[in-house]
Amino acid sequence: MDILLQYVVKSFDRSTKVIDFHYPNELLQEYNWELADQPQNLEEILMHCQTTLKYAIKTGHPRYFNQLSTGLDMVGLAADWLTSTANTNMFTYEIAPVFVLLEYVTLKKMREIIGWPGGSGDGIFSPGGAISNMYAMLIARFKMFPEVKEKGMAAVPRLIAFTSEHSHFSLKKGAAALGIGTDSVILIKCDERGKMIPSDLERRILEAKQKGFVPFLVSATAGTTVYGAFDPLLAVADICKKYKIWMHVDAAWGGGLLMSRKHKWKLSGVERANSVTWNPHKMMGVPLQCSALLVREEGLMQSCNQMHASYLFQQDKHYDLSYDTGDKALQCGRHVDVFKLWLMWRAKGTTGFEAHIDKCLELAEYLYNIIKNREGYEMVFDGKPQHTNVCFWYVPPSLRVLDNNEERMSRLSKVAPVIKARMMESGTTMVSYQPLGDKVNFFRMVISNPAATHQDIDFLIEEIERLGQDL
Amino acid sequence: MDILLQYVVKSFDRSTKVIDFHYPNELLQEYNWELADQPQNLEEILMHCQTTLKYAIKTGHPRYFNQLSTGLDMVGLAADWLTSTANTNMFTYEIAPVFVLLEYVTLKKMREIIGWPGGSGDGIFSPGGAISNMYAMLIARFKMFPEVKEKGMAAVPRLIAFTSEHSHFSLKKGAAALGIGTDSVILIKCDERGKMIPSDLERRILEAKQKGFVPFLVSATAGTTVYGAFDPLLAVADICKKYKIWMHVDAAWGGGLLMSRKHKWKLSGVERANSVTWNPHKMMGVPLQCSALLVREEGLMQSCNQMHASYLFQQDKHYDLSYDTGDKALQCGRHVDVFKLWLMWRAKGTTGFEAHIDKCLELAEYLYNIIKNREGYEMVFDGKPQHTNVCFWYVPPSLRVLDNNEERMSRLSKVAPVIKARMMESGTTMVSYQPLGDKVNFFRMVISNPAATHQDIDFLIEEIERLGQDL
What we know:
Two copies of one chain form a homodimer. The first copy, chain A, is α/β, with parallel strands linked by helices. Chain A contains 16 helices and twelve strands. In chain A, α10 links the parallel β5 and β6. Chain A is globular, with a radius of gyration of 24 Å. Chains A, B: Its EC number is 4.1.1.15.
């Protein structure tokens, strides 16, 4: 306990490092990690815990901006400890009575917030957004061709899914796994802000239909991973309605904005979706993992996935069997992911999540306002950030004098990786970078960390300049 | 903390109830579980924790025998708390340096124990055995027809998977999801002990080939869910070799026996498998979830699943990229499941797991010896249990005098559900029951709980008789 609490305290202390970085081979040799025949004593076990935490990333550190999931909420952490202590499985009411009820209450609340009448519909907490998106694809296919469950893809025409070129790679991963194939995922063009262009969507749907293929799913994104863009959901909904296609919204990253009266307009149209992925472990700061798939039509998940295992879902139990929700999952055993979200929600209230989200978006705007006209920075796209993603290049002095030609691009592409490596070696802060399309490596700042302040944003800028000015 | 530790202490106390059972509607009304706009204070939050634990099942209770995963290991629990505190994701070395290394070390050790030379191969911790089995099916298909990734199932011939009629339902679930279809999963006959009959396997493979179908996977089971049966892996391996079919072993439940010098012979032949599912969260008592898929051929998982997301798996990072293992997963974010297993292994040593497993099997044999000749009990199958599964009917006095006809069967089928309902209402112990094939509802006792003793087994028998004698 002391070891864990010390770590928590350190995580929030700006004077400690975000990471004590070592290269993989170094770290392998630094310590004896091997598993042996003989037991070790308590003292040794405690030392392993200390060592593990010494080399871990402090994801709760106010200057850790590397991923969409950052921060450490103390109520969420306590709830996760309780979950571990209860150590049960979600498949039946029999062995998880409270957690099954809390899942029911929480998913209903999330559906109300999405805007489905009375919070009706279905849903599940799944192990991450990629699996939630895969569920959506699976259910959409089943809705159109229920025979696929028994007969497989051989019995159905060629199915086509549509998603934007900025969407998450899990759509392709899902299509590969489900036997649909990545070639059948059509990537729709985006505008310069990373939003799907509806006219291109309609054009590609028509093109697919002309080839005799069957469009079965459009996955719009609410909060893309890199730009934080929101696809125009209302326009997408109109197109899906017109062509009778399942509309999925991947709001893994953007879903949190539904908690904010100020920002939820960015998801207008989400209420028309057939299914929504929403990861409270991202923008809402719930400990990992907590991802929900929400489905408008009730019963579909169950028909799609159920296999009636008689040793789990006995039909002659003494309680209402509709609470045995396990057979609608792809998983058999399913980790309890709901309690940390539920308890945080009780502790913060919807208004507490709202305040957190508004603050993170305000910080992103603060960053944007500082760097948009600052010497040495170029924005990857124009305009205020819609989410907390702020994408930019830092241009070191030696490059500022160069013409905008290939040599400059090539040199610029090497800047972010070097600064990032130096950041990790000095351990002061962490932020992500990547190339995208024809754009060479740029920084993607995201803010979901409740501990972050204006001073931490200022620090990040100073740090990038300190580490990159000689490049 | 006090609340959690009190719960742990109570869990181990035989005088407390395993469960304080309430019907779903009762429990919904007993307490206000709803989510609201306004925050609640710390006192209220602590009360929610207490209430949640009050109604939870004590899965660590010495008399909780309901599932394959039971018990509460204190080192495992501490490790899970540490995992929650570190709150990170498995996708890259960058953000999970220690955990990525520990996954590498632990999976390698597990492959060594399986018997693959030098522990070579590949693997991943996945969210449960059903997903691990789905991975195996996915990889087996990709190995035979790599074009399926891009082209989907339409581009490949009809694929057939084989598994026994006693195997886990996740094989069918996986086939439905992957677009193979449940009709293409052929269930092979079992002998009276629940073991796959190799001659029937070969017959069905030939039959499929004659129809022009392509057998691509045999999933043998090492430790079936209900009977605890071990398929004859050597004979299955010979058949797989002869017909060039991927051999998967679902050792989710039975894998733990590999840690025991006394019992590992039951899995002879597992070293010839192409892939193995092994869930340390079952027989090895690791907190939920901890399931491994192990693959003999290295690199296949990566080729099968990778999508090269440029924002996660940057190719110009400053460290050895082979430690960024996230792209071989179906998931994007992946929970850290390795640390609790690794820390328990350090604390117990391989010999500690061995002692635990030997003890559980000894307890199962103790139970079997008591009831095999005891009045009022009938064994579902003859012979000593191979795993800790002991399957039996309790026959109340009123039924003992009846002839073995349909009426008796019909009455007998109602005995286990009533006893189980009474068990839950009195909260004294929990054990599972189910029908199987033409066998009406019988009890399936399983022992994986490290806290269970001979006295708890005696208690179970007395309790069944106390609750069922009037039926």
